[in-house]
Amino acid sequence: MPDSGNDAHPADGITEVHRQQALLKTGALQNAILTSANFSIIATDEKGIIQLFNVGAERMLGYLAAEVVNRINPSDIHDPQEVMARAEALSLELGTPITPGFEALAFKASRGIEDIYELTYICKDGSRFPAIVSITALRDAYSDIIGYLLIGTDNSVRKQVELELNAAMAAAEEANRAKTDFLSSMSHELRTPLNAILGFAQLMETGTPVPTPGQRRNLEQILKAGWYLLELINEVLDLALIESGRVIVSREPVSLVEVLLECRAMIEPQAHKRGIAMSFPHLPTPWYVQADRTRLKQVLINLLFNAVKYNRSGGTVTVECALSPPDAVRISVRDTGEGMSPDQLNQLFEPFNRMGKEASAEEGTGIGLVVTRKLLKLMEGMIGVESTVGVGSLFWVELALTTAPQLAAPEAGLVLPQAPVAAGAPLRTLLYVEDNPANLELVEQLIARRSDLRLLTAADGQVGIEFARAYLPDVILMDIHLPGISGIEAMKILRADPQTAHIPILALSANAVPRDIEKGLEAGFFNYLTKPIKVSQFMAALDAALKHAQDRDQEATTEDIT
Questions:
Q1: What are phi and psi of 74, to 5 degrees?
Q2: Same domain membership, residue 262 and residue 391
Q3: How many domains does the chain have?
Q4: pLDDT band at 380, cuts 50/70/90?
Q5: Is residue 235 domain-shared with residue 262, that is, in the same domain?
């Protein structure tokens, strides 16, 4: 049959074998290996004594072949501590006792496993350099080990790059920490004067005599600007904390119905003021998503507020929920605003980019959506957007669907409403430990509205402790940053004293970083309030602490009687 031209001719295989044999006979391959200056090639006998030391090994290590052949084994030119550490690691890994030295280097190779390791070579002049070494067992025709082959390469450049990269990463992390610490400190410093501005403005707004129409308008502007500044502080701090990796979110079953109801209660009044109609879904079954409850509310409130803020007069905001196969829930927020162009959508998640809204009447920071996306990523969720100019926008988030928790826990974050003061109710004592005169005056005026309370004040932690022991107040309000000892230290001293251990202590601080709040609650504070004070929240938290103190007093009285 004629040759098709596709099959290799048998003679070709014979020719290739001849070529290989010729290559070996001429010694070209061996010469290339032995004279390679880029790799150290060391061969030993079965006992580990060096028998071959090529030009590359001489160049790298500074020895002549004659100085090492039949004289030493490779472990003698490695860092002995690293060889010992390798022996111990192998012993732990394989459950076999290992003799330190060359045996540790050759252990895997002797079992037919080619091994690659990183160790430090020690040169003749005492200098050192990191190397990557591959070791292979050499066997005869009967598979008996007759020696070992070690091929090494200088790893100094890669190690230097790693060191520089690690140093750069450490510097970046340190810069991030410094930035976050700075922002946290600035947040505290800004919140302190804001507390006075917003606190006294709220007092004037609700005080007697009633403000004139002109004064009321002025107060509204002060409060509006103050709360906006607080929002800006919070969002900048949130972004910094997320980027520095300091925000930790929980992932637990969260009731979507409950979260949407809470968000609706917060947003709907603002929508009605602007003439915006809102539509929320009626979920046929109680869906639970895997999320951090507080952060999920933050995400949804941001999307809902944006949908209201950038809507048209008489527009609508529609919230929808749907299953997203295979195991997620998609929450959509649709508005009837101006919509966005493709170019604007591309810039949507850039920090501080308001996409041309800077000159509009609507205030904003350009940070909210950036924080929203980062929070969703931490909760292993997703966010997306669709928009048409002149029609509106649709933002959606997806989170993993999960089952309901086994035990229904009390709803986090709920506070008791302020209880009416009954006629003839006993006078309760509140001790406020605070060194800032403006903060003291603000709380004094707030407590002056309560006929059931009397206020004691102390300007530092040590005096606060003495007052607490002397007067045994029903509740203590404690600043964190105090002259002398801190509020946390003062609280711990009071907790350790049997006389005062039962008194609920509320922290009131401008330290509003979530981790600061967590640390305060973990340390033993009954509640942790942040400045600027929101009067309704302050009063509700105070009433909750007073009720706790009253319940405890009643329990103690009952125990004494029995």
A1: -60, -30
A2: yes
A3: 4
A4: very high
A5: no
**N- to C-terminal Cα distance for the chain?**
116
Residue 385 lies in a domain: yes
Q: Looking at the structure, do residues 257 and 367 belong to the same domain, yes or no?
A: yes
CB 135 within 8 Å of CB 114: yes
Of 243, 273, 304, the residue that ends a domain is 243
Residue % of the chain over a pLDDT of 70: 83
- Residue 164 lies inside a defined structural domain of this protein: no
Same domain, 542 and 450: yes
Measured CA to CA, the distance from residue 297 to residue 558 in angstroms comes to 42
Q: Is residue 419 part of a domain?
A: no
Q: Within this chain, do residues 69 and 130 fall inside the same structural domain, yes or no? A: yes
Q: Is the pLDDT of residue 455 over 80?
A: yes
Helix intervals (H) in 72-155: 80-94, 102-110
pTM of the model: 0.44
Environment class of 312 (CB within 10 Å of its CB; exposed 0-12, middle 13-18, buried 19+):
middle
The whole-chain average pLDDT of the chain stands at: 82
Domain shared by 256 and 368, yes or no: yes
Cα separation, 17 vs 32, in Å, equals 20
How far from 327 is each of 19, 321, 382, CA to CA, in Å?
62, 14, 13
| CATH code of residue 371 | 3.30.565.10
Question: 483 pLDDT exceeds 60?
Answer: yes
Q: Are residues 435 and 342 in the same domain?
A: no
DSSP conformation class of 333: E
- Per the structure, the complete domain to which residue 131 belongs is given by 17-154
Phi, psi (5° rounding) for residue 479?
A: -75, 155
Local structure of 338: helix, strand or coil:
coil
Contact by Cβ (8 Å): 464, 431? yes
Cα 87 from Cα 80, distance rounded (Å): 10
DSSP state of 353: -
Angle between helices 535-561 and 437-448 (to 10 degrees): 70
DSSP label at 280? -
177 has a pLDDT exceeding 80 = no
pLDDT tens figures, 381-400: 999 999 999 999 999 999 99
Please list, residue by residue across 168-184, b when 16 or more beta carbons sit within 10 angstroms of its beta carbon and e when fewer do.
eeeeeeeebeeebeebb
Q: Count of residues for the chain?
A: 562
**Looking at the structure, do residues 86 and 177 belong to the same domain, yes or no?**
no
Tens-place pLDDT, residues 320-351: 999 988 899 999 999 999 999 988 888 888 76
In degrees rounded to 5, what are phi and psi of residue 345? Answer: -60, -35
| 420 within a domain of the structure (yes/no) | no
